[in-house]
Fold:
Amino acid sequence: MLCIYPDRPTWLARRAGRMTGTRVAAALGFHPYQTPLQTYHDFRGELGLGPRQPEVEVTPRMRRGLHLQSGIGAWYAEETGREVMPAPPWALAVHAEHGELAASLDLYQWEQPPVRGRGLLEIKSTSHWSASRWADEAPLEATCQLYWQMACMGAESGAWGTVAGDVGGELVYHDVERDEEMIALLVQGGLQFLDAAKRGEPPAATAADLGLLHRLAGDKGPTIMLPAESVELHAQIEAVSRGVAERLRRPYADFEPGVRKQASVPDGAASVGLAGTAPGL
Structure:
């Protein structure tokens, strides 16, 4: 179901409490720049964003992407011979069975004569530092996002069109066909993450979350080592993550050593407890 809202504030408010395509990869541990724990606190509005504070500042990079979107879409249409049409502004594709799952769309695309039916086209303009990640296939977080959008929109196919490089970059595009098993895994993982977030059960942290945990602790106390049994991984969500990686034939690295604020630590003894080993400690 496609829901169209009158303006950006309304769209952000309706989007805030839902699992979206940009969140799901991070929630399942596949995003290179955001951990599941950061996504959890962001979703709960504990980092200044999320459902409690849905307004998000439009940064210069975001404005750049919006302005380049139509041009890259036209370039993609010329390169592939496919027809391209922009999705309605301030729209959300809401999952037919699970209303708490939704996706924002960039463009529609289809072929003449029809081969696969109407599909989705996502646009990305990235810096030359990230160009290599898009050379042979879309990065894992982008692939997950496109499958998520297919799930919410009911589309049969999708593609990423990317211009890599700040100046003089070439167009790179990757087709992605609908995969029911992959979509089922992502929906399962997204629902499990939402359920845990609503119950106030955070995912296991990684060594990358140490700064976040000290920030949430509100002090500069020490970090101490904990026995491994003091950390409880979200086993079901981790199993979904492994299934997604196996389905895409990508390597899945175990979560880095789990971290929990004051997990099995006497009150006042430490701000952050770390299970396992971590460089620099």
